[in-house]
Amino acid sequence: MVSMFIRSGVLALLCMAHAATQEQFVFKHVIALSGFRCDASAKSVGVVRSKLMCAGACKRDVGCKAFFHDVTSGECFTYGTVPTSIAGCSVRHGAFFKKPG
Question: Start and end of every Apple domain (predicted)?
Fold first, then answer.
């Protein structure tokens, strides 16, 4: 079972893998980068069904600091560094999230 909570620009994911085990991971919505897919340090994970699955891919990747989920194509991109501007980014229909800190 997967639950998703969005409050104040924070996407909190709670995955119930087993009745006795809970895994929680939190990503902050980066409004300035949403709608843009940046090429710098982007790694394509492939097509996933939801931003929850994209968040899970980022969580499993030790070097992942952020992710972008393209709503139109379903493509998921993870980032080893968080872009600081939209320079070199292309306009895409999707959301950009980063790990806190």
Answer: 38-84
